[in-house]
Structure formats: structure tokens, C-alpha cells
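User: I'll paste a sequence; please echo it back and then give the predicted structure.

Assistant: Echoing your sequence first, then the prediction.
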Amino acid sequence: MEIKSLCWMESRWQSVNVEILLAPGLPQIQYLGLADRSIKEGATRVKSALRRSGFEFPSTQQIIVNITPSSAEKSSAGIDLAVAVGLLQETGQIPLWDGEDPIVFGELGLDGKIVIPSNFKDAKLLAKKRFVGNPGDISFEGQCLHLQNLKDLKEFRVWEPREYQTEPSKATEKFHYSEDQAEWLVLQNLGEFHTMLAGPQGMGKSTIVKDLPNFLEKDYAGEKMERPFLAPHHSITMQALIGGGASPKAGEITRAHQGVLFLDEFLEFDVDIIESLRRPFEDGQIEITRVGSQCVFPCETTIIAATNLCPCGKWVPGLNRNCSYSRQRCFKSVHRLSGPLLDRFQILYLLPNERAVRNISADAISERINKIRSEVSWKENSYPRPLRLWPRDEFKTHEWVLIDESFQIKNVSERRKLSTLRVAKAFQWMDGNQFMSETHIEKALRWTLHPFEKLEASIY
């Protein structure tokens, strides 16, 4: 774990990196990097502040703090906050930063109070930077996560509070979408399906996902609520994403409960992290077991992934490869997707290598969604949750007959059949029909089967 901070070094304030490492040993803090007495005394301040603020201090590990560059002597109690924050992130007690790493700087009191060191006057170092701490009287042009006390971090979820809107924002109202994009946005409003968007760079994968919150229904399971939308960086740790720790804490997937967890650059995530999502995809909860105890965290979370399928960012399944990489190198990335994990995505949205005509406005999409929802008797459904979560027994016998007939000559999983049935139900509602038909199944297969077959045929 590495945190950016500031130190007095070589007769001036300079930026430094504070590295945090947990290792077997006595529970104490060891400083490296020519730290002076004012920094080393911070070990007691950090330990006391963490405990007084309701956080845990490792009881069976030593904390090694390395301040770089290590070629010069360093001074400043302002390193305290960087050490505390790095330790909290390393142990999964608070999430990692979203986006650019901030400068973390502040002196800690034994009770967790945060103050700017009295001898720090060089505000230029903070110009147009992200800053975490208590700036006091210092003014600067960057963004600030203002902390009066270390315990304020208990409320920290993402870098900035997000605004949730019941209507598309003014910026979104100006956007236009292709037919496929508009259809996917409507499907997501009705079903909130686990989706992977894959295809060439620059085709709008990330953009359309970031627009999605403006089209999501604000009524979840009969309750009006704000819907979280979290997009962690691909460098996130397993513990920060899924949850864990000596005293288990919830991860980002739980913080996105009843909302969206967007995993951009999906194939850049650690493969173990990718595979750890298999159970949360379906269970709607995370179980973390420790000696003598078990914690269960909710995660009825829509998981949406976006990725290029080749390092060149150009390859599209079904078309000839046109990149400078070898076939082995090109397919190495996509082979990180195991069959069981891929099967848990209910929709695979393969974007084309050419930009489609975008002539459907955000207003038109919203009007269509409102019309569909006004015609569907939502309250008559015995399972008042998104279609993504509908169980097998919620569907009628004749609907299962349609699915079985469609898949009778195909070797697919029961999970794939259920995904198709859920999406077909959305198309039934979109068409305003009372009963599901073969047409609705065929429309669903465009999203739930054919893209998967195309991807599989291209890489094997």
C-alpha cells in the first residue's frame, strides 16, 4: 500500500511516498527512510487515534512504514494521517481511492483529531491537487476530503458523494444512442441484468454504462431509494472489493447493494478477484467466516463489466483479427475469463468495430420506459425485484416449454436458459403482450446466447 504525503526534507517541503507493509511480528510501527524523532513519535499517536476512533490496530503483525525517497532526512508529524490511512486501506477498513491518488497530510491527536502542522505554509504544493486532511486556514484550488477527526473516515465510501437523479441530467438529455444502446438501456431498467460489454476501444462502452444511473428505476422492491453506482479501479484488492479483514468489513460490492458495481477494464483486474465474484453474482450476499464467527453482507448488486478483448483494443469476435499482436498474445487476455464466470453474465453486449448511427434521444428512451412501466402490473408480481433476481418458479409452465424448445439441440447450462427466460420476460413487457411468445425468446437470444457463441467460436 502506498500513500502520497509531504515532509520537510532538504530545507523545504517536498512530496513523499509512504509505503505500508504488514509483516509477522510484534504489533508496533517501524519507520524506515531516515525519519526523525517527530515522525517516529507518531507511532504512539497513530495507534491511539485508530483505537479511539473505533478502528482496529493489528494485534499480531508489525507495521513497516517506508518513506521514500530514502536518501535524505525527513521531518514532520504530518505523516501521521498518511500512515493511519494507509494502514486502514491495507487492512480493508476503508476503501481505496477512486481515481487519482490524493495527498494525505495531517498531524493526529491521541483522540484522533486532525490538524495541519503549524509550520506548514507552502500551499503551492497543494495547488490543483486532491487533498485529504484538515486544511485549516490554507486555501487551494484542488479537491478536498475535509476531515476534522480520523473517525470521519468511517463514513467514507467513495471520493466524492454522488448525486442521484430521478430524471436524466441536462448533460444526458443532449446525448443520443444507437438502436442497440437504447434497447440495452431499456432492458437494464426492467431487469438490471449482469452484463459484460466487450469490443473495440472508443466505441462507448464506458460512456453508456456511466449514463445508466439516469435511466434506472428509483423504486426497488417497492421502496423509493437512491441507487448507488460504484466504479472501483482495477488495482483494487480482493478485501476492498469483496470484504474481509480480521474483523470483517464490507467491501465495495456491498456498498453498491441494490445499485450498480461497474468494473471497467475488467480483464485488467486480478484473476483471483474476477473469480471471487462467481458466488456474489447469484447469491445476493457475501459470507465471511472467521474463527468463532460468521458475517453476512448483502450484495443484491448489478455487476456490469466493460473490457477490450485484446491488448490492441481492436479485436471483435466474428471478424478477422487486425492487430499487431500474435494470436497467442491476442487471446491470452480473454482466456482469463473462465467458462463458469462468463456464464454468470446474463447479457453479453458485443459492440461493433464501427460506430452505429445514434439517433435515439435520452428523452425518447425515458418516455418508452415510462410507457412500459405504466402498462405492466408490477404489484401483481409475487417477486417484486428486478428480473435479474427472479427465481425459476416465478415463471409459468408454458414459458419454460418455450425455452426448452429453443434450446433442445443446444448444449447450454440451466443458468443460460434462466437468463434467457428473464430477458425474454422483459421483451414481453416491452411489446405490451400478456403472454410470452417465441418472438420474445428470439429477441432475448440476441443478448443472452448468440454473442456468447460468437465469442467462444472465435477463441477456441
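The longest helix spans residues 414-431. The CA atoms of residues 416 and 449 lie 8 Å apart.
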